[in-house]
Amino acid sequence: MEGVFAGFGVLCLIFLFGRLWFSLIESGLQKIKRRFFRRPPAPWHPLPPSWQPPPKGPGDGEEEGPSRRA
What we know:
- By secondary structure, the protein is mainly alpha-helical.
- The chain has a domain of about 40 residues.
- About 50% of the residues lie in helices and about 0% in strands.
- It contains one helix and no strands.
- The longest helix has about 35 residues.
- The protein starts with a helix and ends in a 34-residue tail after the last helix.
- The model has no long low-confidence stretch (mean pLDDT about 85).
């Protein structure tokens, strides 16, 4: 029975070490990316300056009528 607990403890330690290692690597990669790519990416298809969003109509999720909140 002690072997089962020891094995479980080893697996828990491996799991925790993996999580810590993953967090360290990911934070390091984010810092490197921030250093080299500071500008926000340009949109792949910019909208013309005269573009307006279409008006909301029935069926767009904003139904008229009594609210269902009570």
